[in-house]
Here is the input.
Amino acid sequence: CLEIDSLASEAHFAISGFYSQINKDTLALYHLKKANSLEPENDEFAERLGQYYLSQNKIEEGTRVYERLADMYHDRSDFLDILTRIYQYKKDYPKMLETLNRIEVVEGESENLTLSKMQVYSNMGDEKGAYEELLRLVKRHPNDLNYKVMMGNWLLANSRKDEALKAYKAVLKEEPGNPEAQMSLMDYYRATGNSAEADT
Here is the structure.
């Protein structure tokens, strides 16, 4: 095929897969890059190139490919998800946070995204950012007691014990038998050295 048309992107793409299978990585990469340069708008070619770079531990090259894909296809959260993992690997937390926010625009708000963003803020040493992210989740779901317990747990883990106790008691006032709040309250009393209340 390449003898007939040396600029056939699909032929370069196909032969790169062949070279990859017989461990001729240099030739595989050459033809993959050629296919991508001949048809830069082809997301399949670009994604395979990005995957190949990452598999060869060429992180910077792979990052550039996925950044370009994310810019070309704003509605593809799968590209953004891969970028998030790349930035996490590189410990580039500001970029990771920016990408999680882009995913939220595409997919909408979710508990998993909020928890991921909280973790990023924690990794950055930004306790205020993590707190505000969780607070937004609680405010968006005022009737979900699990999020209020989650807030209490975060406060307890961050040495804000009085606020944590207040959060747990607020949940138990609404639902006295809430098992998550009871377990968290037990942890609170253990953390404050009150074993009798913990046992209760």
User: Anything to note?
Assistant: Residues 141 and 147 are 8 Å apart (CA to CA). The chain has a mean pLDDT of 93. The longest helix spans residues 93-107. The chain is about 80% helix and 0% strand.
